[in-house]
Amino acid sequence: MDKIRAGVVGVGLMGRLYGRLLKELPQAELTAVYDVDAERAAEVGAELGTKAFASVEALLSQVDAVFICSPDRAHLEPVLAAAAAGKHVFVEKPLATSSEEGLQMVEAAEEAGIVFMVGHVLRFDPRYIHARNAVAAGDVGEVIHMFARRNTYIDQGRHYASWTTVPWFLGIHDIDALMWICGSPIISVYARGARKLLAKADDSVLAVLTFANGAIAGLEVSFVLPLVQGNRQSPLLEVVGSKGMIHVMPYLRGITIHKPDGLVEPDPLYNMGPVMHGQIAGVYKEETVHFLRCIQEGITPAVTGRDALLAVTVVEALERSLASGQEEKVESITA
Ligand SMILES: NC(=O)c1ccc[n+]([C@@H]2O[C@H](COP(=O)([O-])OP(=O)(O)OC[C@H]3O[C@@H](n4cnc5c(N)ncnc54)[C@H](O)[C@@H]3O)[C@@H](O)[C@H]2O)c1
Q1: What is the span of the domain harbouring residue 218?
Q2: Is residue 275 part of a domain?
Q3: Would you say the CB of residue 74 lies under 6 angstroms from ligand 1?
Q4: How confident is the model at residue 335, as a pLDDT?
Q5: Residue 284 covered by a domain
Q6: Which of 12, 28, 62 is nearest to 285 (CA)?
Q7: CA gap 223, 244 in Å, rounded
Q8: Which residues, 6 or more positions from 297, have their beta carbon under 8 angstroms from its beta carbon?
Q9: N or C terminus of the chain with fewer C-beta within 10 Å?
Q10: Pairing relation of β-strands 88-92 and 236-241?
Q11: What is the pLDDT of residue 274?
Q12: For residue 169, which atom of ligand 1 is closest to its CA?
């Protein structure tokens, strides 16, 4: 098959990253970028040696596939436009900010027969894949409980809290991963939030998740880690089973660099820039290669729209629980 002509909608942190990956990968050709901020689109287009277009429609006329990396609330329109034009879609997580919008996208993609994949990147982290495989092989017996943590620094929290919340931004990663690893959907959620630093959004949220198979999980997410020297993000996953346990320790990055002005711990998997002999390596590359392979070989992506929709319904229940102070059931999407 010829190179896949690909474009990127929304060239902020993630869109620029996928643009760079598409430029590097031999099976793709970056043919177009679009951003609502035309200046930014022109700047990133020039940096990546491709053309910036003035609308999503104009971009779609130049591509076989599109990466949608606009803020969460701005996924629906470009996904529907791409599906209507018969273009394959990779859309960043969360699929949508409501299950109604998510279902619209999933149905449009199914009707159009396009490859439709959502960026739940933990499914491309080798450690989480090992955890999933171990549970599926029965190595730890029946899952009894799990614990997942994901947090980020307050500068990131301040940026993202202007258009999302910590469960939608960070929690949804682990909610998808926990259901995938446990092999069972979450049916109810009880959540509490603390609000001290970010004026209009929760700083940190803790939740108890109950699964259809009787397992339970604790989830901890935070947007406000202090920016102090030596502090580190501490993502974590633990699985306790009837016959064994799994510890996934992504916070142990395996390298510390002690510079005169402080300690640096580069993340070997979640790279945003070239680290492998001049090219980007790690989970985002694996995810992009997988999406392109799904198009070339006509296979179903490792993360489907329906998987991502399920995670959206769980975050909706979590947000309802934060508002009501009660345990809330996950409302299933039947269509
Ligand atoms: N998988 C991950 O690890 C990960 C990490 C960060 C963000 N994300 C997700 O990726 C998406 C983008 O996040 P980001 O961190 O790149 O955000 P960002 O704020 O860095 O960039 C967003 C870009 O989208 C542009 N934009 C805004 N409205 C638009 C519209 N209607 N049409 C086109 N462009 C528009 C903005 O101008 C900006 O350039 C979000 O859905 C976010 O949740 C995923």
Answers
A1: 123-269+311-329
A2: no
A3: yes
A4: 55
A5: no
A6: 28
A7: 32
A8: none
A9: C
A10: unpaired
A11: 85
A12: 43
